[in-house]
Amino acid sequence: MPREYVHIINGLNEEDGGPVYALMSLVLKQKELKNQVSIICTYKKNIGNLEKLNQNIKYLRNKKINVYIYKSWFLYCFSPGFVRRLFKFDKNVIVHIHGLYRFTTSFGALICRFRKIKYIIRTHGALDSFLYERSDNFSSFVFIKRISELLIDYGNLKHALFIHFTSKREKEKAMIPKNIKKNSEIIPNGISLPFSNNQINIRKKYGLKNNEKIVLYIGRLHLKKGIDILIKSFSEIDNKEKNITLLIAGPGSEEYRDYLRNYISKLNSEQQKKIILDKKVERSEVKSYFSQSDLFVLPSHTENFGMVVIESIFYGCPVIISKQVDIYEELENYKVAKAFDINKISLANQIEKYIMDSDFKDYVFKNGKKVINKIYSWESISKTIELKINNKLSKKINL
To answer: How far is Cα 320 from Cα 332, in angstroms, rounded to an integer?
Structure first.
């Protein structure tokens, strides 16, 4: 029987990466399955690309997804309009909350508790030990997170229909009490493809020769992604005859980008020529980047899923990933990814080995799309979410 779903997320800005892509794919599939679907989110006036945000909203609305977006105040995303909207929904909706530690997510769940609306909380890696004591905002925000936990978030997690983790490892690492963690379900992400493709020649764009091998990192530039380790590892490679270029592209803070530039500037001139640091790639161009590269690397210190990993495999580009990417074991079992321990020598050896491994590349090219469609289909994931909801609701009725 069709349901009415309401999704709450801080924003739909593409620079927030995986959570936004995952949500957009999920709601479109839920709509295809004849459900009524709404998104409530906020935006900050100073975000980078309002035009792209408006394009996403227009696209979703054209697909009959209700999008309610409100201007927010401060880093905590406070918005009176957001609160008013939550009180207008029928109590029989199922609310899916994407994230923690912001007004939209913490108070969104609190209002659901107050109104006795059933809700799910998806943590998106926020409870991982690496991120738990860190904040992208001012340092004292970590203290605010702990206060928010004690006063609001633990109660929200405890009373949720269930906590949505995307992998077994994400659940194991979650920094919450065991009695709360018990109330959880493991449901993976799906493959979220661009809504349109703009084919470009990336070798021509960056002035690379046709025989140049490309090691690619594409995604958000952030401390947790281990990009500095990737650069250090690449500088250890004897590159005189191998013709390998490291291409790093993605959005991120200027502070972290300057940190990476500064490290690159300390390498010798030949090494510097072999490293390209670019800004955000248009979503419509990512297929060109993956399909024309020889190896994708994700050296994250922590990653609750890794959307770019499954995109790379889908488009036929082999990947090597750190063992802190929570889905690495499953991908290794399907032989479409290789995993490494996070240190520069181990990663350098892996890059040198697999950039030249034609058998690995051929296998991913021939089988990658099939594997990803098999285990990360949004249709099966949407139906799994529905099944988990039905199971939880029937248990509550029987109690």
So the answer is: 10
Residue 12 tokens, joined? 């739909």
> What residues contact 225, with CB distance under 8 A and at least 6 apart?
217, 219, 298, 299, 300, 301
Confidence (pTM): 0.90
Alpha-carbon distance of 316 to 294, in angstroms, equals 9
Helix axes 254-265, 227-235, angle to 10 degrees: 10
Whole-number Å distance between alpha carbons of 64 and 75 = 30
pLDDT digits (tens, 9 = 90+) for 12-71: 887 777 788 899 999 999 999 999 999 999 987 665 567 778 888 999 999 999 999 998
Cβ partners under 8 Å of residue 380, min gap 6:
none
Whole-angstrom Cα distance, residue 274 to residue 344?
17
Pair 11, 42: CB distance under 8 Å: yes
Sign of CA dihedral 278, 283, 288, 290: positive
DSSP 334-367: TTSEEEE-SSHHHHHHHHHHHTS-HHHHHHHHHH
Q: How far are the Cα atoms of 144, 202, 370 from residue 373, in angstroms, in the given order?
A: 40, 26, 5
Measure the CA–CA gap between 330 and 250, rounded to whole angstroms: 26
> Do the beta carbons of residue 160 and residue 120 sit within 8 Å?
yes
